[in-house]
Amino acid sequence: MISFFRAHKRTITILLVGLCAFCLYPNFDIEFLLFFPIFVLLIVSQLFWIRRVLDLGERFIPGKPRRIWLAVVATVVYAFFCAYSFTHFGILHQWHLLTTGHLPVHADPTLRSALIDGALCVWLLGSWLGFCLVMVFWTVDRGARGAIWLYRYMHDAAVNHATAPEADAIDLPSLVRRNLLRQMAIAVSATPFVAAAYGLLYGRLDVEVTHPRIRLARLPKAFEGFRIAQLSDIHISPFMTATEIRRCVTMTNEQKPDLIVMTGDYLSWDTAVQGEVVQALAGLRAPYGVFGSLGNHESITHTEESITRLFAAQGIHILRQERAPIQLNGETINLIGVDDSQTDDSWIDHLVMPGTVNILLTHVPVPDTLDWAVKYGFDLVLAGDSHGGQLSLNFLKRRISLYGLHTPYVSGLYEKSGGQLYVNRGIGTTLLPIRLGARPEITVLELTRGV
Ligand SMILES: [Fe+2]
Fold first, then answer.
1. C-alpha 402 – ligand 1 centre gap (Å)
2. Ligand 1 center to residue 106 CA distance, Å?
3. pTM, rounded to two decimals
């Protein structure tokens, strides 16, 4: 039996990696093509980094028995982290529930389990990104060596009509130099661990207040310079506490907006804290009121009715296929809200007001949002859901993130055929409590008729 495993070690490893990756996303749909390779890389990255840690142990820890003990302790700690995340409401458990279609029934994690889960998230993200960097180094190295070999082969063939040089005859870097390069590659590849820790401890809380100007040709004169603050994707949890939400409320109020709107996802999973998030948001103040719409987390936690009632008791009006005309000096703009769970368009016709600006609060900026908005007469759509990609390279291009695979609308302002869409990056997080390249955002939009 043992000899069989030894003889087929590679095949068995590949099969086990594939099986584990499938278990992490057990659905044969279009997204399987995206998630399966991601999880294969994730699992292989675990094996890679464990191997590197063992290498380090062999180099720096004297004595085999001591190394074995340390390896056993490290294995137990690693297994504990993974098991804890599965048995409590950690990232692996959340992911499992989402992908298998089971609705969450547990509360959000306690602070203690959240800290343990946070450490695991830093490890998972850091190890995955680090391994991807190693693969890039490896590919570049192999490509460079292949190019050198090809160049020399062609050069020699042209000059001497000689046969191709043997691979061994190539003047490759010395063993010492190659080892040094390898160590440098691993050191650089370890930077994602630092980046992930930064995203957990700082990037997640580094709220940015943005001030986009929105030009609306049909804006009534009285609303020139009218300022609307938008909050989105609060996701109350141990990683976004009521205290932190109140800090964002204070930041919003300090902007002295005329109107405040919220575009859904007040909860993460725990329905028991809906009163707490509503209380924290109840401090929002604006002369023309505070309005909101509902997100997918209110839908999947079945809290649409209850949280709407709780908000209403605090004077905050959640617009559920409803409108709220905002009046100023006898002129009107029309604010409309729609639930994320609303699947048909039957509610639109009697809510849109011709002759003035219609602003829609929705949650998900789906790919046809702008075409759809223009078709039905919405001048401006305010949305959230994306978290700006949460892990994003938007300094290169704002669509470069996993969310960007779903829709072109990830963050900021988009315009098409006279319709405009603003996607707020939200202030909370889901799944990974980490933000990189997508700062939490409070938006203060200034409306103008100017061209
Ligand atoms: Fe969200």
1. 14
2. 18
3. 0.77
